[in-house]
Write a structure and sequence with these properties.
- The protein is an alpha/beta fold and 269 residues long.
- It has two domains: 54 residues; 145 residues, Nucleotidyltransferase, domain 5, CATH 3.30.420.
- The protein has nine helices and seven strands.
- Strands 1, 2, 3, 4, 5, 6 and 7 form a seven-stranded mixed β-sheet that branches.
Length: 269
């Protein structure tokens, strides 16, 4: 028997965090709403395989592709994916799996078929429309925050937003934690202003300097960020962007974070 895309333990965590379904009319209630678990399975299938929404197999019992798209947009608008990601981070901290001694920042450019919001000419792809994923992970590669910008956005520009978007992570007695001890990044993040800003937050910047020879030694720790990006690209909808709307692609990004965090929590890599 094939392994289900959504196992029981993960669904038990997700279900209470989804917004309640709208009330049905007493007269002419219309077609009964498809179960949330079935729809989430269809969304995951599209994320992993990259198939168009209209090609979602009806044999899966997930409803039509448009039903799954509407539910994805509805849950994104309600902030459900960020809530689920936050709960998973709390559980990871409670299990002593988050490495606060250092964090890693990195980015990856992808092609955006058809353009859309938060796209720009990709300097690494002959100026074709593209987007960029900006990722902040802990010392083990657990995704803490992720942002979407145009492919022509310099890596250093959204760094402040990435760090400020880090949610307060509970799971331990005492105050929730939001700041790592150190932040590692490549030469693209080398900036005196960013170094001063990080130090003001109590974060030690370990950023490779421009104009120096390669071999800073930071790659010994920075590789975990590149590995997490490679895990994201195993989801085909995150390898090439097909969504013209930025919020839909951002929803896929957050589900990718949820999947990676769940694998860390269950050690199912």
């Amino acid at each position: 028997m094939a392994k289900p895309l959504v196992d029981d333990e993960l669904w038990a965590l997700i279900a209470p965090l989804l917004p309640p379904p709208p009330l049905r009319r007493r007269r002419h209630p219309g077609r009964k709403r498809l179960e949330d678990r079935a729809v989430f399975t269809g969304i995951l299938f599209v994320l992993k395989t990259g198939i168009p929404w209209e090609d979602l197999p009806q044999e899966m019992g997930c409803g039509s592709g448009m039903t799954c798209w509407r539910r994805l947009e509805e849950w994104q608008r309600a902030g459900a994916w960020k809530r689920i990601h936050k709960v998973l981070l709390d559980k990871l901290r409670a299990a002593d799996q988050i490495d606060w001694s250092r964090a890693v920042v990195d980015s990856s450019s992808i092609r955006a078929v058809g353009g859309g919001e938060k796209t720009g000419p990709n300097p690494t792809d002959r100026a074709r429309p593209g987007s960029k994923h900006h990722l902040l992970t802990d010392g083990r590669g657990i995704p803490l925050t992720v942002l979407l910008t145009g492919a022509n956005t310099h890596d250093s520009v959204p760094l402040k937003e990435l760090v400020e978007a880090l949610p307060p992570i509970a799971g331990k007695v005492g105050r929730p934690r939001r700041r790592p001890d150190r932040l590692l990044g490549d030469r693209a993040y080398d900036s005196r202003a960013l170094r001063q800003w990080l130090r003001a937050l109590g974060i030690t910047p370990l950023l490779a300097k421009r104009g120096t020879e390669h071999g800073s030694g930071l790659g010994v720790w920075r590789w975990v960020g590149e590995r997490t990006i490679s895990w994201f690209h195993q989801f085909r909808r995150l390898r090439i962007r097909y969504e013209r709307r930025a919020d839909i692609h951002e929803a896929f990004l957050m589900i990718g974070c949820i999947q990676v965090c769940w694998r860390f929590l269950t050690e199912s890599f």
